[in-house]
Amino acid sequence: MAEDYKLPRGTQDFLPLTSEKISYIEYMLKSVAGLYGYHEIRTPIFEHTNLFLRSVGESSDIVNKEMYTFLDKGGRSITLRPEGTAGVMRAFVENKMYALPDTPIKLYYDGPVFRYERPGAGRYRQITQFGFECLGVHSPLIDAELILMNTSMLYMLGIKDFVVKINTIGDTQSRENYKVELRKYFENHLDELCEDCKRRFEQNPLRILDCKVDGEKELVLNAPIITDYLTEESREYFNKLLSYLDKFGVPYEVDNRLVRGLDYYCDTVFEIKCKTPDGKDYGAIGAGGRYDGLVEQVGGPHTPGIGMAFGVERLLLLLDSYNAFDNYINSFDAYVMPIGKECLDFAFEITMFLRSNGFKAECEMQGKSMKSFFKSVDRQKVPFAIIVGEEEMKNGTCNIKNTFTKEQVTINLDDLCSYLNKGLNKEHECQCGGNCNCEKN
Ligand code: HAM
């Protein structure tokens, strides 16, 4: 096949079953976000390039190497968004959301972002980020709340063995102190650093610490850590945050070397890590931090904020590795099979009746043999097979087989819905799909 007709590198087609898994993840995240008072915001997929230069920052890898930037037909420099926060901040300022009386303003978004990264396991060029931004409050309690919300999202999805790697990069004063020390430390070793890090040394030496080339070198590992240069206020803020995480039992580890690759952060930064049961690490499944200066940077009044984003594809890989969808994904609740052409209309009526009562139902219309019908039922893990012949049509009944228990009964059509409801456990209220810790599991 000619290259033009192949997927561009780092992108994916999501076929039906996978798309449904993604919808399930998104549904769970939205449900929990609602409990914490978050509301959806949608912003354009492309923005003026300058927005990202000013917010994500000129010293970041994202701006330097990874943006999809082009001139539009009007000669404007446009960039496909490489992350969601900058666009949300622009919308926040442009729509004067800072003037809304009830703070904090809590926003969530879900959509594609684009980064020209080297594709690999769990690393793509088009990524779905599900992100959260909480604006208007500067407090360790709101930082803790965001992390607690993320924690309950992961528990609801059935992910238990994760850890929140957390650090503080302090306030502006702390970082200025730290940058001076980092420059002193690296200035006599510039020849040991890669070309990018030589630039980072001038622009923002913090970026040297998470360099993909130099990050693991002894020189960088032995560099001073921010913790030793924090102002008293930043130290107290961080300790208070950790005390909340302790109180609510969040599994976290302080990582003094975590600085994050975007320039807008201050104080709290964190990444959520989780390996698959067989030990595979696809990188952080979500990450974020505080950004008290960002709204000002994009032209608004001083407004503190904190946020994070999950990488939906990484959540998908992880959940698949835990077989977390086994209880949730099945194609139909019931598959209806007519015995003979004469019963097809009757089978179809039953199928329509089930659909109008909220069941996922399908009717066999191709004249399959009973053997191939049941093969299809097994392949698709359909819990109920309904078979109707002349006898059933005459009596207003159907023959129904529970494909898991193998129980097979003939029931009156009036009882069909309640029979299915019982068998499918539809009274189950929390919609967890069997993955949460609710009393039904
Ligand atoms: P980020 O750490 O660059 O932060 O990305 C957030 C998440 O997106 C990552 O933890 C990861 O799960 C996913 N991700 C990023 N790049 C890739 C990739 N190439 N392939 C697969 N997944 C990827 C941000 O973007 C910030 N805007 C988060 C934030 C919101 N901070 C404050 N508010």
Topology, please?
Blueprint: H1 16-35, E1 39-40, E2 46-48, H2 49-55, H3 61-66, E3 68-71, E4 77-80, H4 85-94, E5 105-114, E6 126-135, H5 140-157, E7 162-168, H6 172-186, H7 195-203, H8 218-221, H9 232-247, E8 252-254, E9 266-274, E10 286-290, H10 294-297, E11 305-311, H11 312-321, E12 334-338, H12 344-356, E13 361-363, H13 370-379, E14 384-388, H14 390-395, E15 397-402, E16 408-412, H15 416-424
Parallel strand pairs: 1-5, 7-8, 12-13, 12-14
Antiparallel strand pairs: 2-4, 3-4, 5-6, 6-11, 7-9, 9-10, 10-11, 14-15, 15-16
The structure holds histidyl-adenosine monophosphate (HAM).
The site of histidyl-adenosine monophosphate has 25 residues, from β6, β10, β11 and α11.
Question: What is the gist of this entry?
Answer:
The chain is built from 15 helices and 16 strands. The chain has 441 residues and is of the alpha+beta class. The site of histidyl-adenosine monophosphate has 25 residues, from strand 6, strand 10, strand 11 and helix 11.
What does this molecule look like?
- By secondary structure, this protein is an alpha+beta fold.
- The chain is 36% helix and 20% strand.
- It contains 15 helices and 16 strands.
- The strands form three sheets. Strands 1-5-6-11-10-9-7-8 form an eight-stranded mixed sheet.
- α5 (140-157) runs parallel beside α9 (232-247).
- It is elongated, with a radius of gyration of 27 Å.
- The relative contact order is 0.11.
- The chain binds histidyl-adenosine monophosphate.
- Residues 83-85, 115, 117, 122-124, 127, 129, 131, 133, 262, 284-289, 307-309, 311, 313-314 line the site of histidyl-adenosine monophosphate.
